[in-house]
Structures are given as structure tokens and as C-alpha cells.
């Protein structure tokens, strides 16, 4: 690590410019005692004039300059005048550097950057005349509210990114992005970046040793290369911007420590904690942006503010789309409608098919079981006809026992024409009048047979087949057999389970495919809706990328032609809107625009005009 004092020097100067653009007096305490040769000297009494500017009051003072509210009689305007401290003004190198960098800052003309009107020397002291802003620094606002809403933070991010993009294109880097250098104006929607140009003064004088006694500003916002004393470029500003957004969202910087050495170690080595706030939904797109801004190596960050703005546009599109969906009464996403509708249709269709197939299969299998019982009973009736006629109970017992051992039959009962049981697998029934089973449900009848269904237990079901025994076409008795239906029931249940599983798999496949398809449709619809909304706001340079060779590609192509036609029609020779960002303003959650006061403790939110 290079000289820590040199690093400290590069962060001292911004306290002055923050005071330069305030109406209320403010000053920062010095965190290091000055050296003996640069001991603190109380400022002289407030001057009456600085050049042609009439001094009205002192606004504040910092380690480098005094700041006064002044009046310019030539153009009838109030402004802020920053005057270099006498001990610094006497140093030729610092004096020349101050004027040079102030002139550089004066070349920046952007609505997101405080305007420098004039640079000169009065009473042998260099001064800068700049825009007088009605507002408060962001650090003071954070002291009151601790953290700001996601909407207002995104508004700040948009404005600062545009300001940095402009400054970097002019070859000017800031090098001290922090809340103290961000002014929040009293309209509660505009922020301005201060200390441009002056922020580079310490670096330009570092080789002369003029900045070794300077006071440390806010090292929490320094980039790793700044801590290491390496050369800085626009990517260092973007890192500090990421730290700023992180702190505004969460109320704390990503790295904190009581000791500067430990703080610098964290900035160089540690991974920043996840950006989380209890009870607040932070868009994933915003988290991705901050994560990329806080990459340790400059090559892994956004290489310029234009690339950052590209991702911010996507974030704004997502926020706008979500806000519309949530605010629209009774709104149901097309993607959700299509997915649920298709899933419901497939579910109903498959349930109906499942019931039909199951019913048909069950009937077919039951018919097979009953046919088996019927044919078996006819065979038994044929075999026992002669023993029944001869009243040969011994032969009947032998036949019943043999059939019971060799056939899948649970019960056999043979009775004579009088209804007395002659032989049975239940020995206690022999010689007694036959009794039909209770709770037996008649299923089917023929000319000489009847089939009953009977539930023996919860898990056991049988078919009872009662068939006539005939001899020379005359009924001489009847035979009753019971055939188990358990295999039929198990087979039906297995079939039902397989069909339900197949239905679930089909539903998941249909749901996934429909959701993917509907997501594409919804994505294109949202892009088109966002583009049409921007056209409605007069941003006619909006274009859609034609990525598909289908109906959506044709719609995008037609939209681009329409937008081009409107742009030519309404902006001939005029300055066109960038179309890169929304026009943002700050409002209360209830929708009322905030009054211009810093005492309002309500949370500010993003609102589109």
C-alpha cells in the first residue's frame, strides 16, 4: 500500500464543495491534527466583496476553502463563492493547480453536475463562483432517514450515471463519489454531483508533496486501486458509485471498521455482504448492478457508464412493468392465464379419459372373472349331475375336494332339488337347507345361472355363481361356487395408479411447456407495452430489436417503422429526448408529491410522470 497520507489527501477536498452548494451552514470535524507548519488558522473576518461579487454570508468552511453566499450585481444572481485558504493560496503549486482544475470543472455543463460560473483571483486569493443550490447533501438526508427507498435510490443512480457518463466523455473523473458530494435539491427529485475537477487536485499535486498533511475524508467509498495508490480512471468512480448505492439502500457501507488498516484490508480482500434489507424487496437486477460495480478488479466492473446505463434501462423496464401489473385493478398476467388455462383444460380432459378408460377396463376384467366363474360352475354341474341323481354323497365329497385342491375356487356347495346341501367345502352345511350369502348383490342372470358380487372384508371381494344341475334338460339340483375377485381389484387399482401417474407427468410437461411458451409471449408483450408507453410520453427514438423471424418479429419491425416515422414528424430539427431513462420524481407512498423540506421523515418512492 502506498502512502496512507496520500490516499487520505485524495478524499479531503470534497467537504468544501459540499458546503459550497448549501444554504445552511455546515462544517466537518477534522479527524487528524494538522502539522505544525500547516496549523489551523482561523479565517479572517468575512470579506465584503470577492472580486465583483458582494458577500452576503458564510455558508461553511472546509480544510481547503471558505464558502460564501454572494450576489453578482452584473447579472442579478445569487451564487456560492469558494475561496482558497490563505495558507494554501500562498503556495504557488497548489494555487496554480486549484485554478487549473477549477477551470476544467467549469467546462462541464450538465444538469446533474453543479455549474461553475467563474474562476478568478481576488485579493491574491483564487476563488470559484458556482451555482447556489437549494437543498441538502445526501449524507445529511441519510442521517435523518437512515436509508432511502428502492425507487428513490434508482432515481439517484440514474441521474449520477448520466452525470458520470458525460464527465467521463470529457476526460474528467471525479475520484471522490460519496453522499457528502451529492446534493438533493428541494424539489425532492433532483440530485447534483459536486466537487468535479477539485476532486483531482490532490492527485495532481501528490508528486510535489503538497498533500501529505491533508485530512482524511470518507475512506469507506474508496476503490481498491485507490487504496493501493494505483492509477485511477472512470472505473474507480463506478466502484464508488456502487458503494454509494449500497449504503443508500441498506443504510450502511459494505465495509466498516474502526481501524483504517482493517477497513482498507476489507476493501482490497473481502467480498461485500449481500445487499439485504428486512421487509424490503430489492430487485434482483439492482443487486446484480451493485455486485458488478463492487468488483475488486477494475476489468470485471462496468468499463464505462454507458454499459452501466444499459443495465439500468433493463432495471427500469422491470420496475415499470411490475408497478403497472400491481397497480392495474384485477390484472392477471397473460402468462399466468395461459398456463393455468392450459393446465386446467388438460387436467379436465385427462380426468375424463381416465374415468372412461378405468370404467371400461374394470368392466372388461369383471366380465372375464364372471365368465371364468360361470364356465367353471357349468363344468362342475355337468360332472356332479349323475352323483346328485344317484344321491352318491361319497362321490360328491370326492369331486368337491378334488376341485377345491386344483381350482382357484374358495367355496363350493352342491344341493339337491329340495335345497338340502349334499356336499360342501364347509362341512357344517351338509344335510342342512342351503342359505344364500347375505349382502350379496345380484350382478347378472341367465336362463340357468345367477352371478352375485359380495364384499367379504374391506380388502377381499368374491363373485358367487349359482348354477343349475340338469339331467336330460331337467333341473335336479344346484351348485354354488365362490371365485375370488382380489386379483381383479388389485389389477384395477394398479391400472388406476399408473394412469394417475401418467396424468401427473403429462400435466407437468404441459404446464412447463405452456409456461415457457407463455413466458416468451409475455416477455415480447411487455417489451412492446413498454415501448408503446415511451412513445406515448414522446420518446420517439425507442426501437425494438428484431430477434425472431415470426409474427413477433414482424410486430417489432412494424413498431420500429412507426417510431421512425413519428420521430421524423415531431422532432425535425429539434433536440430529441434520449429515451434512455424515465422521467422520475419523488412521491410519498400515498402518491402526493413531497414538499421541499428535509424534516419530512416519510419514505420517498419512485413515481413516473
Written description of the protein model:
- Residues 1-41, 201-217 and 573-609 have low confidence and may be disordered.
- The protein has 609 residues and is of the alpha+beta class.
- It is rod-shaped.
- The protein has 16 helices and 17 strands.
- Helix 9 (234-250) crosses helix 11 and helix 13 (334-390) packs antiparallel against helix 15 (486-536).
- It folds into 2 domains: 4-327, Orthogonal Bundle (Transferase(Phosphotransferase), domain 1); 346-493, Beta-Lactamase (2-Layer Sandwich), CATH 3.30.450.20.
- The protein is 44% helix and 17% strand.
- The protein has a 6-stranded antiparallel sheet.
- The longest helix has 57 residues, at 334-390.
Shape: rod-shaped
Average pLDDT, rounded to a whole number, is: 76
How far apart lie the N and C ends? Answer: 48 Å
CATH second-level architecture of the largest domain: Orthogonal Bundle
CATH class group of the largest domain:
Mainly Alpha
Beta-strand percentage range:
15-25%
**Coarse structural class:** alpha+beta
Roughly how much helix do the residues carry, as a percent range?
40-55%
Write out the strand line-up for the largest beta sheet, numbering strands in chain order.
1-2-3-4-6-5
Count every beta strand, where a strand is a DSSP E run of 2 or more residues: 17
How many H/I helical runs? 16
Low-pLDDT residue spans = 1-41, 201-217, 573-609
- Structural domain tally: 2
Largest sheet: 6 strands, antiparallel
Question: Brief overview, please?
Answer:
This protein has 2 domains: 4-327, Orthogonal Bundle (Transferase(Phosphotransferase), domain 1); 346-493, Beta-Lactamase (2-Layer Sandwich). By secondary structure, it is of the alpha+beta class.
Amino acid at each position: 500500500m502506498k502512502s496512507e497520507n496520500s490516499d487520505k489527501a485524495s478524499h479531503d477536498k470534497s467537504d468544501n464543495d459540499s458546503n459550497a452548494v448549501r444554504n445552511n451552514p455546515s462544517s466537518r470535524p477534522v479527524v487528524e491534527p494538522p502539522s505544525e507548519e500547516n496549523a489551523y488558522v482561523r479565517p479572517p473576518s468575512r470579506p465584503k466583496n470577492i472580486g465583483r461579487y458582494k458577500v452576503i454570508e458564510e455558508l461553511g468552511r472546509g480544510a481547503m476553502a471558505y464558502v460564501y453566499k454572494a450576489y453578482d450585481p452584473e447579472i442579478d444572481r445569487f451564487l456560492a463563492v469558494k475561496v482558497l485558504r490563505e495558507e494554501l493560496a500562498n503556495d504557488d503549486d497548489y494555487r496554480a493547480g486549484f485554478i487549473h482544475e477549477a477551470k476544467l470543472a467549469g467546462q462541464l455543463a450538465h444538469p446533474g453536475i453543479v455549474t461553475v460560473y467563474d474562476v478568478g483571483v481576488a485579493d491574491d486569493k483564487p476563488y470559484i463562483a458556482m451555482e447556489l443550490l437549494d437543498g441538502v447533501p445526501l449524507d445529511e438526508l441519510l442521517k435523518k432517514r437512515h436509508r432511502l427507498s428502492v425507487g428513490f435510490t434508482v432515481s439517484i443512480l440514474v441521474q449520477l450515471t448520466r452525470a458520470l457518463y458525460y464527465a467521463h466523455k470529457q476526460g474528467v473523473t471525479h475520484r471522490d463519489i460519496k453522499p457528502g458530494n451529492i446534493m438533493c435539491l428541494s424539489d425532492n427529485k433532483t440530485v447534483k454531483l459536486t466537487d468535479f475537477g477539485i476532486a483531482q487536485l490532490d492527485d495532481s499535486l501528490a508528486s510535489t508533496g503538497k498533500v501529505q498533511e491533508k485530512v482524511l475524508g470518507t475512506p469507506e467509498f474508496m476503490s481498491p486501486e485507490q487504496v493501493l495508490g494505483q492509477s485511477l480512471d472512470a472505473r474507480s468512480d463506478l466502484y464508488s458509485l456502487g458503494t454509494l448505492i449500497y449504503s443508500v439502500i441498506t443504510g450502511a457501507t459494505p465495509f466498516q471498521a474502526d481501524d483504517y488498516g482493517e477497513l482498507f484490508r476489507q476493501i482490497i480482500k473481502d467480498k461485500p455482504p449481500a445487499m439485504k434489507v428486512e421487509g424490503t424487496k430489492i430487485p434482483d437486477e439492482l443487486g446484480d448492478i451493485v455486485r458488478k460495480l463492487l468488483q475488486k478488479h477494475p476489468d470485471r466492473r462496468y468499463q464505462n457508464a454507458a454499459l452501466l446505463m444499459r443495465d439500468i434501462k433493463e432495471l427500469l423496464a422491470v420496475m415499470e412493468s411490475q408497478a403497472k401489473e400491481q397497480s392495474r385493478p384485477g390484472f392477471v398476467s397473460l402468462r399466468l392465464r395461459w398456463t393455468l388455462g392450459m393446465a386446467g383444460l388438460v387436467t379436465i380432459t385427462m380426468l375424463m379419459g381416465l374415468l372412461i378408460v378405468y370404467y371400461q377396463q374394470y368392466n372388461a376384467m369383471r366380465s372375464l372373472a364372471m365368465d371364468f366363474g360361470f364356465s367353471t360352475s357349468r363344468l362342475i354341474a355337468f360332472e356332479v349331475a349323475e352323483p346328485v341323481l344317484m344321491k352318491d354323497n361319497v362321490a360328491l365329497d370326492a369331486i368337491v375336494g378334488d376341485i377345491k385342491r386344483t381350482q382357484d375356487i374358495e367355496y363350493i356347495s352342491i344341493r339337491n332339488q329340495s335345497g338340502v346341501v349334499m356336499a360342501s367345502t364347509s362341512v357344517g352345511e351338509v344335510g342342512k337347507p342351503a342359505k344364500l350369502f347375505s349382502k350379496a348383490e345380484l350382478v347378472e342372470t341367465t336362463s340357468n345361472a345367477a352371478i352375485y358380487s359380495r364384499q367379504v372384508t374391506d380388502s377381499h371381494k368374491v363373485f358367487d355363481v349359482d348354477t343349475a344341475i340338469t339331467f336330460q334338460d331337467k333341473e335336479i339340483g344346484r351348485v354354488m361356487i365362490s371365485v375370488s375377485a382380489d386379483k381383479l381389484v388389485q389389477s384395477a387399482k394398479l391400472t388406476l395408479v399408473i394412469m394417475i401417474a401418467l396424468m401427473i407427468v403429462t400435466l407437468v410437461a404441459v404446464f412447463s411447456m405452456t409456461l415457457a411458451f407463455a413466458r416468451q409471449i409475455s416477455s415480447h408483450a411487455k417489451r412492446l407495452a413498454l415501448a408503446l408507453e415511451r412513445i406515448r410520453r414522446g420518446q420517439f427514438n425507442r426501437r425494438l430489436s428484431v430477434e425472431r423471424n415470426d409474427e413477433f418479429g414482424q410486430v417489432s419491425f412494424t413498431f420500429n417503422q412507426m417510431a421512425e416515422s413519428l420521430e421524423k414528424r415531431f422532432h425535425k430539427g429539434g433536440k430529441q429526448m434520449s429515451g434512455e431513462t424515465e422521467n422520475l420524481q419523488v412521491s410519498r407512498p400515498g402518491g402526493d408529491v413531497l414538499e421541499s423540506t428535509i424534516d419530512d421523515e416519510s419514505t420517498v418512492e419512485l413515481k413516473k410522470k
